[in-house]
Structure formats: structure tokens, C-alpha cells
Amino acid sequence: MSNKPKGLTPSRRAFLKGAAAVGGSMAGGGAALAASPDPLIVEKQPWAQGTGDGVDASPYGLPIQYEGDVVRRNVEWLTADTISSINFTPIHALDGTITPQGCAFERHHSGAIDMRKEDFRLMINGLVDTPLVFSYADLERFPRENRTFFLECAANTGMEWAGAQLNGAQFTHGMIHNMEYSGVSLRSLLEEAGIKPEGKWVYVEGADASSNGRSIPLEKALDDCMIAFKANGEALRKEHGYPARLVVPGWEGNMWVKWIRRIEVTDQPIESREETSKYTDTLEDGTSRKWTWVMDAKSVVTSPSPQSPIKHGHGPLVITGLAWSGRGAITRVDVSKDGGKTWETARLANPGQPMALTRFYLDTTWTGEEMLLQSRAMDETGYVQPTKAMLRETRGENSIYHNNCIQTWWIKSNGEGENVEVS
Amino acid sequence: MGKVKMSKYRNLLLCVAAASVVAGPALAGKFGLGRPALPEEIAAWDLDIAPDGTGLPVGSGSVLDGEETFAEFCASCHGDFAEGVDNWPKLAGGADTLADKDPLKTVGSYWPYLSTSFDYIRRSMPFGNAQSLTDDQVYEITAYILYSNDLVDEDFVLSNENFMEVELPNAQGFILDDRDTTEAHFWTEPCMENCKDVVEITMRAAVLDVTPEDETAKAEAPAVVEAAATPEPAPEPEPAPEPVAEVAALDEALVKKGEKVFKKCKACHQVGEKAKNKTGPILNGIIGAPIGQVEGFKYSKAMKALGEEGQVWDDENLTAFLTKPKKFLKKTKMSFAGLKKEADITAVTEYLKSVGK
């Protein structure tokens, strides 16, 4: 990916505006003495005198207007058109681990389609005893599961292979979301049809015009894949495959087929467009890896970061970020403030869950020093997130996919951040 | 001691209890849900084709016919010679570039199996009107793509009979995921102190400067007004756009012809009652309408600017635009290369006149 059009500088102006607003507190730190009484306290405020909205003001609630900038964003020069394109989750502005559906990134190949539950059909065919068709109502009658998983696009961080390019965690690492899915195991559906002994793979296909399809080894299909119809407690959003999508824990997002309509048991992989011309990783010598399904362990500091600069004064600072691995649970995250010379182990907000996002915090003190902020994830298999140099050494710079390198944010003395690469 | 034992026992009990509480559902064989799929239903959806040719339909198509079919259905995005337009995929070229700094990955240079092309074109193309091609047309287009990549001669005819004889150049260019071995050193005990001597910034994103600006800041940025290709100075704001001569009866034969030409536009533009903005705006009532004003469509700044200076889609503007979109307006988002035949432009204009608001 080359540097395409000349964009505008990142939110420098927005940042400076923000900094000016808190300018007073930038200099001092900690619990400064107030010079005069705070009008927000000593004067009666309208919200403390009048009344607010009634209960039905917004039957389906949206974030308050002041959070209006916490939205998915697109990088227009990446793709020819928004119908076959991708946007990015605002991870720099979120906390915890669950991604609200409304700001979870979208990736379509032929646009997000409108399909009623009544029009949903799921066919199982191929090497099965009885080819079957399920309606949406049928799906709801299989034993149900609730499981939380991350979905990461294999191209997440793909624009950073050749160098630091996009200035913000949303753009470098935002092709990810993490939701609690309710649905049924793929195994139960396959067993309902009865798998013939020659069956070794399943080919899964969506109902949209792209008919995105991927081949999945039967072993994985029977292990932990799900057909999900709810996420974070409510129906899937249209952009995430309403009324039902496939969940392939720990494996690249492209395999999580949306609007799923067909599962074919086969004796060989189909080698569809999405698993040959795309989602294969070209190495330095021109050969390409295929079937690189599992997402390697990875992490990123979400704040402070270029879109989430330090706006307060010196003193306590919370460094936070996300870590995940397609091979299992995150066991540890280390943070470096000096570009990888020294590391300290961060605090996991909760014990890592297999193939789900883990939130980490480093509660620290900042006195205005510049930082080269990095995070490094480790998973239960002992895999340690590599540096970009290590990745380039084995893969070159043309892989596009599966860039799980350690990310560096240069935090300057004024609190502003920039995406950089370090030696 | 007894107490310790006791609490251990209790912990054990708790664990067991917890385990059974969070366990997944116990599957008890079949549920009798769903219904058998009918053969016609399977035939309608089971279209995928495997690398060994399983699933290929009977049929054939020549390079020569493919050239025309490609021009009609594919060239608006992929270019007349499969060379690609704008950011749309290039399908030809790139031989021996895979080890270069910027590899060009096309059907000819990268794709391992021809079955993939046929399968994809048949199921997913043309963009915006998928599964509208006949099997023979798919053979034609596939043959033409092979020809564009210098892999077959111009008299080549591709069919289900000779399909498996075609081997693509990069068929042997793939290896299975070997991260567990080639990257085994990533499983390690990480360094915590004195991990390197020097740390220097070697690259900065701000230098490259390709990050999208946020919306609020964008609004503050000075509006860049690209000069339109039309040479005349901005006209005085007209009182109202010239109404289209709706009185003039439409030439029905020409409308019919135009409807055919419009197939090329359909991948991106919709007309009719249920039309929605897609890659391109809705074209209902576009003749005589102000330029760049279809509600809800995100135009290029340049196109918007034309409308703001009072320009409308009259015959003259539309003909110029459809002849060579990028010549009419350099910064247009429309990637279509243009209609070569004047007669096609006249016909499609007539057709567009027939689709009112």
C-alpha cells in the first residue's frame, strides 16, 4: 500500500484546541488549590433546577451528543468504493472489552444487505446424510450458547507493513471488535444433517451478492464455531450479518461469514477468491503463505495515543490498551515507555479469556517526559508479540495481512501522540 | 488440619458446581429440526467450483466473444484490457512482480487456480448485478482474462472440456501456513531490561500524512475548488434550471436501445421506484436536474461545485461527461471510462429521459 492522496494533518488543530481549554491544568499537577470558587458548584446549574428528558424521549437510546465523535471512520483512499470497503472501530475512545455494536467496524464486499428473519434460509448440503434447510425459527430451537470472542480482520494494521502510516489507534488497529454472541454451535447443525466419512472441510457462504465464501477444516467447524444471531444481548446489526452470521473464534474475520446461507461439507477446500487472491500472505521471495487462519497474539495502547492525547497535567496517568490472541487467553502484557529498552508488566483488568479481548492498565506517573510507548502481549501458548523488525525478517513487507507487530506511539512533552517506528 | 481439609473439600465442591453451571449445552443426538433440501434448491445455491473442476458447468466461450462481453460488463471498473480503473482491481499484468517492492497481483500473476476466476465471476460479478451472466458468458470472460494476461492466443476457446489443461503461472507459488516452525522463535521468554542500546525514531506517520482528518476539522479546512474542465467562466446564477422539454415525445425505439446501453451503468447506478444510491447516485429524473444534487449521495467536491455554480445535466454536459468522464471533470468519483459510440450516448440519454422522478 503506497501513500496515496495528500490528506490533511491529523487532528492537530482539534488537539491544540483541547489543550488550550485545559491549559491551566497542564502546568500544575495533582490536587491544585482552587483560586476561586468553581461556578459549576457555587452557581445553580440548569440541569439542577429544571427537568430532563422523559422516559420515551429516545425509545432506542443513542450516545449523548458529547460523545458524537466516538464513531467508526473510513480511510477513503484505501478502497475504490464504500460498498466494498472497511471502516474502523474507535478503540482509542472505548474502555473495557465489549465493543458496542453501533461502533464496531464494518467490512462489506457487496454492501450491507437488508434481510428479514422470515426470509432467512440456511442450507447444509454436500457430503451429508440428509441435506437440510433451516429457517431462523429452527435455529432458535437448538441448544444455545453464549460466548465472547474478538473478530479481527486479517488486514488490521496491514497499512503499517512498510512504515508508520496512519496516525491513530483507530486506523492502525481498529479492524477489530469483541462481542458476546448468543447462538448455536455449528456442530449441532452439522450433526443434524449427519456428516459422511469423506467430509473433511466445510465451505461456508453468505447470502449477499458477493457470496463471500471460505473453506474451513471440519475439525475447526466441529470444535468451537457458532451460528450467532445475537451480539451483546440484542439482534445482530445489519452491518454485522443480521439475522445470523458465522463465528470462527480466533481466526481471521473474513471467515466469519455474514448473512450465512449455506454450509457445504466437502472433501477439499474450494480455494475461493477470498482464500487465494486475498487473505494469502506474500513473503519476501514472492511465495505466499495460504491457510494462515489463526490470528497471532497482539496488543496496542489505546490511550494515550494520537487520537487520545494526554490533556491533563503532570501526575497520575492511566496507560491502557487491549490485547488478544487467536491461540488462546492472554496471560500477560508488558508496557515500555522507552521504545522497548525496558519493560514493566501491566495489570490485566480481568484474567484473559480465550480468543477474546483483554483490557490492560498501567497506573503510572507522568512528569511531561517524552515517551515511546509500546505494549507487548503474551498468550497461554507462550507466544510473545514480535517487533516489526522481527516480522519483516521472516515475512518481508508485502504480506498485507497478519501484521501483529508491537506498535509505538511517540508521546511528546505536550501530551500529543504520533505513530512512529523505532530502531 | 481438619479445617484445612474441610476448606479444600469445599473449594473442590465449588469448582465442580461452577463447572456444571457454565458448561455448554449437552447435545443429545438429533433434534428433528429443519427440513430436507430439495434438489432444485441445492442446484440453485450450490454453485462453487473446486480447483479440480468439480462443479464446472457445461459450456464454452472464446477470447473474441469475451472481448465484447468484457467490454460490456466488466470494463467500466476493470478497464478495457483488464488493466483496472482507479482503485478497482487490475486483472491482468504483473508477471514476475511478486518478489518486488510493490507486487502487482492479478489473475495472471498471482491467482493459483483458474477455477477461482470462473467461480467468482459466475457467483459474484458483475458488481451490482451478480449472477446475471450465462455460463457461456462466464467462459468468454474467463478466456478473455487469460488472453489479457498473454496466457492464451486470440483464437482460444475455453470450455469445460479443456478447462483443467490451463495451468496458471503462480499455481506453485503457495505454501501452507508455516508460522509454527518459521516463527518458532516468537515463543520465547521476553526481555525486560536493557533490551537494546539505542532507540531512535526511524519513521513518523505525520511525515507521510495520509490519516483522514476528523469531520469537524474538515469543515474548517478551506474548501478546495477544483476548476472544472469546461472552459467558460462561471455563468451568472440562472433563475431556474432550464426545464427539460418533456413535451417532446420520447423516441420509444431509442429508449429501448438506451435501456440496453444502461446495463453498463447498472453496476453503480439505479433507476426506478425502489432505486437507492449505490456506488453512483440514483438517476431518476437526472436529465435537466442540477449537477451534484441527488439527495444523500456523497459527491466529489468538484462535482458538487459544478452544481453550486448552477450547472445542470443538459444534453451538452451529459454528452461531454459520458464521452470521457475524467476529461469533463478531472476529479469525478465515477471510474467509468466513457461510452465510445455517440449513438450509445444519445440512446442512454433518451432512456434517462424516460425515467422520471
Keywords:
heterodimer, A: 423 residues, alpha+beta, Sulfite Oxidase, Chain A, domain 2, five-stranded mixed β-sheet, 13% helix, B: mainly alpha, Cytochrome Bc1 Complex, Chain D, domain 2, 5 strands, heme binding (chain A), TMAO/DMSO reductase (chain A), molybdenum (chain A), molybdenum ion binding (chain A)
Envelope shape of chain B: globular
CATH structural architecture of the domain at 107-149 and 179-288 in chain A: Alpha-Beta Complex
Question: CATH homologous superfamily of the domain at 46-165 in chain B, by name?
Answer: Cytochrome c-like domain
According to CATH, the fold-level topology of the domain at 46-165 in chain B is Cytochrome Bc1 Complex, Chain D, domain 2
Main pleated-sheet profile of chain A: 5 strands, mixed
CATH architecture of the domain at 46-165 in chain B: Orthogonal Bundle
CATH class value of the domain at 46-165 in chain B: Mainly Alpha
Please report the total strand number of chain B as a whole number: 5
Cα end-to-end separation of chain A: 22 Å
Protein name (chain A): TMAO/DMSO reductase
Keywords (chain A): Metal-binding, Molybdenum, Oxidoreductase, Signal
Domain Oxidoreductase molybdopterin-binding (chain A): 115-271
InterPro entries (chain A): Ig_E-set (IPR014756), MoCF_OxRdtse_dimer (IPR005066), Mopterin_OxRdtase_euk (IPR008335), OxRdtase_Mopterin-bd_dom (IPR000572), OxRdtase_Mopterin-bd_sf (IPR036374), Sulfite_DH_SoxC (IPR030835), TAT_signal (IPR006311), TAT_signal_bac_arc (IPR019546)
